[in-house]
Amino acid sequence: TLKLTGCLEDEFTCDDGQCIGIENRCNQVLNCMDGSDETNCQILTVQASYEKSIPPISVRGNEIVPVKINVSIVLLNVLNINEVGNEIQIQFTIIMQWKETRA
Fold it and tell me: What percent of the chain has pLDDT over 90?
């Protein structure tokens, strides 16, 4: 499709001719009156072999360099404390975040 537009270089042309900032394209908010800024958006495309629970690695020369991982632990519940046996049962969630380089 060819569109002739009066929009600036840093703007997106909606199907109805409206101009919006390019940063508003595919941001999951309808910024065009006709909603065309949210059509045909692919936020992230990954290969079938992509495993989201395994952090990526990078290779520099022959050296494998692990990615920096931010780890957070959220304590959800203290289930049991056994002072005599020096035991504690807890529920928690581990959150791992990293900059994705494989997508």
Answer: 53
